[in-house]
Amino acid sequence: MAFHKSQGFKYLKNFIIGVGASVVMIGALMKILSHPLGNTMITAGLLTEAFLFLMLGVLPPEKDYYWEKLYPGLDNYNANITPLTAGPTTKPSRPLDADAVEGRLGGMLDELQGMSKSLGSLKALQEVDFTETQSQMETMNNFYSKMNDAMGVLSETVEDTKIYKEQIGSLNRNLTSLNSVYGNVLGAFKKGIE
Asked: Residue 131 falls within a domain, yes or no?
């Protein structure tokens, strides 16, 4: 885009025109009142205005918009203006395909409904209160650390249970051996008595 068509240049141009005009007016007032700065002010203002008129003469004119084509009768003060968007004033050159128009409108309606749902979801997310999230996270951390402690204790208990089971098995074998020895002693004692 050309610099002279930018918003910044248009603002600057209007600013310089306004300041230049005000300097010319103040200079003219000072000249009329015979103030000592009158000559300087009016000279500065007129030079500024001369520069502006030169600039406006060099720059291309702004694009003209022919609004009377869109609003027939705009150039007639007493005209009852109806915009073209209200409907054609003459017969269209080609007939409208109602199915195509209806299909496009249906597609647009679906898109609008999807956008509405998305906006509703964003609004719901905006209304969510995250102030208690930190305390909930701390509670979950405490729960997990206690769960880990319990799993460690359970693991130790399982090891103790295995050792206890092995000791019971060993005791059972010793008792079986002892019973067998006792049975032999009893058997020998009975033979010795007979």
From this structure: no
